[in-house]
Amino acid sequence: MSIDRSTPQLGSLFQELILDHYKRPRNRGELEGANAEAHLNNPTCGDEVRLQLRVVDGVIEDVRFVGDGCSISQSSVSMMTQSIKGKTLDEARALARLFTAMMHGDADAARDKTLGDLRVLAGVSKFPVRVKCALLGWNALDEALKGDVA
Ligand code: ZN
Prior knowledge:
Helix content is 42%, strand content 18%. It is of the alpha+beta class. It has one domain (25-144): Sufe protein. Chain: A (Alpha-Beta Complex), CATH 3.90.1010. It has a three-stranded antiparallel beta sheet with strand order 1-2-3, covered by helices on one side. The N and C termini lie far apart (40 Å). Bound molecules: zinc ion. Zinc ion (ZN) binds next to helix 2.
């Protein structure tokens, strides 16, 4: 499997991590007992993500996704599921805000260590068309956590 041609050249660590998550997505599949979910797509690129969460006492106990699309969209959502699992809703929302700020070119957000591996995606902010790909999973998270979640 090769990375799609439209993927920006953003360095080898970026390529490695993206490919790794694209080939072996984490937390992929259906989630039993999900109590929050969202299904979003990014028509510009043809990406699709359905995110399911099981939230218990304000903590994201488990998360799964199914999706289709470019390597950036799918690897970004895979990385996201890893980083939000076990987090409180407030922590997950704070991560989503940081990641979104980073994608909009905020240098302070890009240096914030709480983002962990996700910071590898910072370079995507230079490619506006791909920003939508990288944000798809996070927008789905935002959508899923709207309203009353346990
Ligand atoms: Zn895409």
